[in-house]
Amino acid sequence: xxxxxxxxxxxxxxxxxxxxxxxxxxxxxxxxxxxxxxxxxxxxxxxxxxxxxxxxxxxxxxxxxxxxxxxxxxxxxxxxxxxxxxxxxxxxxxxxxxxxxxxxxxxxxxxxxxxxxx
Length: 118
Prior knowledge:
It contains no helices and six strands. By secondary structure, the chain is an all-beta fold.
């Protein structure tokens, strides 16, 4: 394993299930756990409406994650991992690139949909 792939990431899929009364619920469940290289590409900060004397802050970060090729990953999935500070992060997969079209590595283009803070 290349040393640059030092992050343990879990790819999750949204699974819908039906209960005995016919109701549906969806839950994010692990699809696979792999080693990957995580690089934040850019970040943007937006200020929203004023709430109780402060402004809502929305942070959007684009992130590139490189993993060994795995079949079955789709943009309907998401990625979770623990950052160096131990904080859990969840990213939405927006695009998947087969590097070199040779099925050796995948690059997942992801977006953190918001650490919302004040």
